[in-house]
Amino acid sequence: MGTVRKLVVEVIDARNLLPKDGHGTSSPYVVVDFYGQRRKTRTVTRDLSPVWNEMLEFNVGKPSDVLGDMLELDIYHDKFIGPTTRNNFLGRVRLSATQFVKKGEEALIYYPLDKKYWFSWISGEIGLKIYFVEQVVPPPEEVKAEPPAAPEGEKPNIEVEEAAQPLEDPNTLEAEPEKEKFEKEGSSSTVLMDPTPELPVQEDEFNQVKRSVSLGSIPEVKVSNITGPRPISRASSVSSFISDAAASERSGPIERSSFDLVEKMHYLFVRVVKARSLPTVGSPVVKIAVSGSRVVSKPARKTVLFEWDQTFAFGRDGAPDSSSLLEVSVWDPLSAKSFDPTSDVDVAGYVFLGGICFDVSEIPLRDPPDSPLAPQWYRLEGGGAHRGDLMLATWVGTQADESFPEAWKTDTAGNPGSKSKVYQSPKLWYLRSSVIEAQDLSHELTHSKESSYQIKAQLGFQVQKTKSITTTTGSPSWNEDLVFVAAEPFTEHYLLFFLIETRSAKEQTVLAVASIPLTTIERRVDDRKVASRWFTFEDPNDQERRIYKGRVHLRLCFDGGYHVMDEAANVCSDYRPTARQLWKAPIGTVELGIIGCKNLLPMKTMKGKGSTDAYAVAKYGNKWVRTRTISDSLDPKWNEQYTWRVYDPSTVLTIGVFDGWEEFESDGCKEKMRPDFRIGKVRVRISTLTTGKVYRNTFPLLLLSQAGLKKMGEIELAVRFIRSTPTLDFLHVYSQPLLPMMHHVKPLGMVQQDSLRTAAVKIVASHLTRSEPPLRREVVTYMLDADSHSFSMRKVRANWFRIINVIAGVIDIVKWVDDTRAWKNPTATLLVHALLVMLVWFPDLIIPTFAFYVFMIGAWNYRFRSRDTLPHFDPKTSLAESLDRDELDEEFDALPCTRPNELVRARYDKLRVLGARLQTILGDIATQGERVQALVTWRDPRATGIFIGLCFVVAFILYLVPSRMVAMAFGFYYLRHPIFRDRMPSPALNFFRRLPSLSDRML
User: Fold this and answer.
1) Is 136 helix (H, G, I), strand (E, B) or coil?
2) Selection from 587, 223, 219 nearest residue 379 by Cα
3) Residues 388, 280 contacting (CB under 8 angstroms)
4) Contact at 8 Å (CB) between 452 and 415?
5) Which of 111, 425, 509, 957 is deepest in the core (most CB within 10 A)?
């Protein structure tokens, strides 16, 4: 049974429509068009705020260039109701299908009505719920087609085939499943090389193979079409399979791939699928030897055949070698030891069953987008295998091959947790619970004057409480908002409300509890009022009997209009709201190439030598990526490339390097619980990247610890930003608010934001640690800067020097004025005299002259803009090079203080809290000043271009328009009535908040 996707549009109501019937009212109806389908609602008679509550259903087809994927909704006045002949158009809404969500995520959204023509008079908004649903379609009745009639005197072809096919041929049993298996992989086809003929099979040899011990009844071996490299002749000796072999690099162009930011790494791929006709009843293994590397596969799965289905990737460093052989052999272990792929093969513990040799120079190159090479049967030689066959495929490719992520690789030593992975952060919501009042509690209250009552709300590990209320009426009232962070899915979570009685400072009693499933809570995307509901309190000690203990009045909703902050605001990688309906189209993509590291310090000591098992993690938006772990290397090379969609240029891409312990955990090491050690981190701000330019830089990995600042090595990255929107649309983003509307309409407090961010970090870390391989908690917290708000005297002094650096510009202006008065430069002093006379006689030129002067400064500084290198962590700005040991111990000391004296501890903790607040204030002041500097310093090339362009336009306009008119218009605009003001910040303020500062370079 198949499914059909449909789009459901629930037309709820409209507000504040224009009167169109000539008597102060309208009779509106709605017409909706989608993919050439038109639906219409009923007409609501004489109502400017009509309510329809109708559901319109549309079929969803394939994307059409003619019809597009836009939904258009028009509201009309029914001119046949009432004596009117006026235009009946009331407004329209146009939405893209990318904004729609699936059923269960929908929310009531009020869209403002747009005009049809430039001079149309339109007002009001319409409330809609739009979502996709999947409907099950019953399968049609199958009609069996009649086979084509055969000519007279001939049997049908199908009967001839059936007669020629034995009933119990094992080839038939495995042919169809094998065909289906390889047709479903990656693409629907495989690449076949030039066929090589095979000698015909003699009848006596067939009978001899048929008596083999491996399968009892062996099918006829058909290897007439060899699709891979031809095996070379060899002597049947066991020693040739246990000797080290090597292969030289094949010359010629390497495969085309999208990995253009990183270096292509050559790999020899060998895919071992299965074997047949082997003279064994055990679980044989396959040994592969090439270029000094040897690997043993896992034991075969015994079905009708012997199956492995493993892929191995051998690194090709291009070094000349004396031999160019790839040796694949099959061995039957006498014991179940040495199954480790990196272990050597003990000849005394294995029985050689046969093998194949290939000339590496004959192995073909695979050129994507070609399909994968088809595996084929090869005849095993030597070892008494008789007519044993091994199915495998071998080719030369790069890390862009789709088989590479899951393959065993020589540089990872077969570590099972070393594969490259992409992770997704959970979808986070703010859950707002408004506790209004409680009733019917008189039989629960003790009526004591010293008792107070409060509500404790709990969601998982998050606990919040209302203020305590003293009452004797049995109806306490709180009217408080409690906000939590919740992650999808909500199926197994409950929001608990406890009624607590407090009789003294240490005596609290839980009187009742209310449990609310998260799946029953409404979702909203704006600040509209959500209907409140009454919930029943039950006995906390006997919830099975559900004894009534009163009721509580709550207003619950998921606020999808907020962006749930899990990163520091100055290094945030995403500002989109939770609700997908509010997302805007992406403005481009950022591509990151993680090339490798150099000169890493050894992180662990194993077997008497230092080693490092490094891997890199990159985070942008809700997408995390992790490279494979390079085992025992101080100069690891990953050469992996990843791509993210960019929705806002004022965001930061974060890359971190860590030392992993997965390999030792799998070996049962005693230190398996040791966390992954952080090596360093790099941040890249998207707005500092020029469109289409590739930045390939080496960044130092700096780590600040209790021992001081240490350089852990270097990482080489390649970054490119590609814009996908028109230039005007891209520049228009700079005038938009940085955060979603709900952050400005109903903002959250600073203390509340900090606690919610802490909860969000814990939820994200818990989610990613359940992945396989896990992204550990210490890695997530380091990437999200979970401890960035901790107190540090070093940060306080660094922010203070940042402020001094900004004020230094003002000091330079005062010094320049003093130098001008002192006639140190007579020419400049004469020019200032002339400028002073001109501005005194023509005061209208003051503002345009200043704007033109700023334009000249910005244009002059264009020569000194950053060209090649990207900004990175600056130890001098962070004051990390000259550290005081006492301050460093204070910075890494946990709260509360560990000093023995209780009084000193209390005062010390209070000082650190005050210092943290002062540190934040100083950082904010420094950020604002650095943003003013960024207006003309080309730190953000687009922002500086916009600013100096506006300065030039303002200067030109003010030269033509009298300043008195401009001042009067500005005054009238500033004092305008509140009904003409927008609740959102002005474009100028939005532009200023998007300017970069040095805060993202702070360690």
Assistant:
1) strand
2) 223
3) no
4) no
5) 425
Is residue 112 over pLDDT 70?
A: yes
Residue count of the chain, please give it: 1003
How confident is the model over 139-145, as a mean pLDDT? 54
User: Coil, helix or strand for 437?
Assistant: strand
pLDDT at 663: 61
Distance CA 649, CA 425 (A): 21
975 HSE (CA, 13 A, CB side): 5
Residue 9 CA to residue 848 CA, distance in Å, equals 53
How far is Cα 404 from Cα 616, in angstroms, rounded to an integer?
17
Q: Is 434 exposed, middle or buried (0-12, 13-18, 19+ CB in 10 A)?
A: middle
Per residue in 502-515, pLDDT tens?
Answer: 877 677 888 889 99
Q: What is the pTM of this model?
A: 0.74
- Tokens matching residue 433: 């619970």
For residue 27, CA distances in Å to 51, 79, 86, 140 come to 11, 8, 13, 45
Q: What is the pLDDT of residues 239-281, one digit of tens each?
A: 434 433 333 333 344 434 467 888 888 888 899 999 888 888 8
Going from the C-alpha of 703 to that of each of 163, 261, 569, 895, the distances in angstroms are: 76, 27, 22, 22
Q: Which of 337-341, 805-809, 819-823, 991-995 has the highest mean pLDDT?
A: 991-995
Is the pLDDT score of 228 beyond 60?
A: no
Tokens of 506: 């240490």
- For Cα atoms 457, 459, 462, give the angle at the middle one, nearest 5 degrees: 85
Contacts of 17 (CB under 8 A, 6+ apart): 26, 28, 48, 49, 50, 75, 90, 91, 123, 124
Query: And the tokens for 471?
Result: 């009452």
Phi, psi (deg, nearest 5) at residue 598: -135, 145
Nearest to 124 by CA among 94, 77, 91, 93: 91
The amino acid occupying position 694 is: V
Range with lowest mean pLDDT among 229-243, 565-579, 749-763: 229-243
Rounded to whole angstroms, the Cα distance separating 586 from 592 reads 17
Q: C-alpha distances in angstroms, 8 versus 102, 103, 114, 125, 838?
A: 10, 9, 22, 19, 68
Is it true that the peptide bond before 369 is cis, omega within 30 degrees of 0? yes
Q: Give backbone dihedrals phi and psi of 657, rounded to 5 degrees, phi first.
A: -120, 135
- Closest listed residue to residue 552, CA positions, set 520, 524, 512, 517: 512
Query: Is 487:431 a contact under the CB 8 Å cutoff?
Result: no
Contact 362, 241 (CB under 8 A): no
Q: What is the pLDDT of residues 570-606, one digit of tens each?
A: 889 999 999 988 888 899 999 999 999 999 998 877 6
CA dihedral over 161, 163, 168, 170, signed as positive or negative = negative
Say if residue 33 is exposed, middle or buried (CB neighbours under 10 Å; 0-12, 13-18, 19+): middle
Is there a cis peptide before residue 426, judged by omega within 30 degrees of 0?
A: no
In terms of phi and psi (left: phi > 0; alpha: psi -120 to 50; beta: otherwise), the region of 303 is beta
440 and 474 Cβ atoms separated by less than 8 Å: yes
Q: Which amino acid is located at 918 in the chain?
A: L
Peptide bond into 333 cis (omega under 30): no
CA distance 905 to 616: 39
